[in-house]
Write a structure and sequence with these properties.
Number of domains: 1
Distance between the termini: 13 Å
Number of helices: 2
Order of helices and strands: EHEEEEHE
Shape: globular
Strand order of the largest sheet: 2-3-4-5-1-6
CATH topology: TATA-Binding Protein
Oligomer: single chain
Largest sheet: 6 strands, antiparallel
Strand content: 25-35%
């Protein structure tokens, strides 16, 4: 397993979901926006994200330097870890419904 660092999540509280899927960041954000009925904020910028609720959003962290998947979906919250976890659970279930295989991050992936 590669130890190449990924981008860092920007929230105070973060729950990471791992997806073993070869997908580009913009496409992953589109799917997340679709399943969460949200919009992509900052599309086309270096730090796009999808709003999931008040003070909660999802960011996609892709492997660096052409490493293979998995990619990380960070569910971030400025409110609390419990709020981030609640939204991560909802997002995970929604992504599974459209065919993604999602799992929580292991300690060495977070």
């Amino acid at each position: 397993m590669s130890t190449t660092p990924r981008d860092a999540a920007s929230g105070a509280f973060v729950v990471t979901l791992v997806v073993n899927l070869p997908i580009a960041k913009p496409d992953a954000l589109d799917v997340i926006a679709f399943v969460s009925d949200g919009e992509i904020d900052g599309a086309g910028t270096a730090h796009p994200r999808v709003g999931l609720g008040a003070g909660v959003w999802a960011e996609v962290q892709i492997p660096k330097f052409a490493d293979p998947p998995p990619l990380a979906v960070d569910v971030c919250s400025d409110v609390s870890l419990a709020v981030a976890r609640e939204h991560a659970d909802r997002l995970s279930a929604a992504l599974v419904r459209v065919g993604w295989v999602v799992r929580p991050a292991r300690r060495d992936e977070a």
